[in-house]
Specification:
Two copies of one chain form a homodimer.
Chain A lengths: L2 H11 L4 H9 L10 H13 L3 E6 L7 E6 L1 H12 L10 H8 L9 H26 L12 H35 L6
Antiparallel strand pairs in A: 1-2
Chain B binds a DNA duplex through helix 2 and helix 3.
Amino acid sequence: MALEHAILVSLLEKPGSGYELARRFERSIGYFWTATHQQIYRVLKRMENDGWVEAREVPQQRRPDKREYSVADLGRAALSSWLHDPIEPESVRHDLAVKIRGAAFDDPAALIREVERHRQTHRDRLAHYLAGEERDFTGPDAGATAPDTPLDAERELQHVVLRGGIAYERMMIGWLDDVLATLARFGPDH
Amino acid sequence: MALEHAILVSLLEKPGSGYELARRFERSIGYFWTATHQQIYRVLKRMENDGWVEAREVPQQRRPDKREYSVADLGRAALSSWLHDPIEPESVRHDLAVKIRGAAFDDPAALIREVERHRQTHRDRLAHYLAGEERDFTGPDAGATAPDTPLDAERELQHVVLRGGIAYERMMIGWLDDVLATLARFGPDH
DNA sequence: TGATGCATGTAAGCCGTTACATGATTGT
DNA sequence: ACAATCATGTAACGGCTTACATGCATCA
């Protein structure tokens, strides 16, 4: 389980409230980890009890007050310990692949629409990632700061993770094209 | 949740016991769905109660008897209904990506070994998939049967799912090379 | 003698999803 | 007037993981 660790990383990048974390999990962190606000609030509470994070009440005008969390020493230590702990490469879980194999016992052509929908989602995500890359990593000041500063490491590592998301979406689009071509060979006119 | 449906697909391809299903989930089905024997036995029992599958006692010599399951009409209908139900494209969950972004706040070079281990796992899986493709889909009788038979659909769809696994592993290996090159730039000699 | 494979399970606990709930403010 | 955004939660249910448990057969 890495939700706690994903939260630690996000709070190290920038402190924030549970609500703000939920926003981030819909965007950048969400490229490789999803979480709803319910999960986040529950885990934040546990992390606060364990002394991993500290909360600060931030009064706001025209808005509800918020509890801004930041990482405590114990949290930093927990993250470091997890980083040094080997993890097993995850296995994939593709509902769609189950459906594709299952289609052999039903009507393969009925899956075409579904696969096209998925393909469109992956195209959208790819466009979104590419826009983010353009905005955050190819600006006029890209590489303009001194090399090898911690900030550079943070940026470079964020960038390489984003490139992973881009590679994933491209691979999926290519594969779904392959799937569509295969399904087309077992259409209703056969 | 698609474990039930993955089991239905597997049992339609070939009836088998809970133990045999667990084996398959370590191999071919495991390319895109994992399950342990505990999950499988529990779900099989529920599916039997719901009339989705039927069990047949098979006495064996020098081995414990086994309960061989096959798909009942209700199970076939449940699968068909699920196949026609749209699902949302899943989001990825990459512990490793969390680690990579977290490494900015620790020692980036300490992750190199871990990433290399993962890369090796993906190389092994790729080799395994390619061997399976060679064995099952490029044999002398590939395409030798009459076109567009149900068996062909089953084979073709299994093959396209396997090609998805191959594409995934190739993508991961390429990305992990990218990650290693990035981590190397923030090594201890900086 | 010990490890591995065949075969089937129970129990505990955490994780994740869905639904429900509140309440103010801002924009159409 | 209605929807969306900011902000924080509770409750219930089901899924998944880990550990524990049994027992026979085979092979080194």
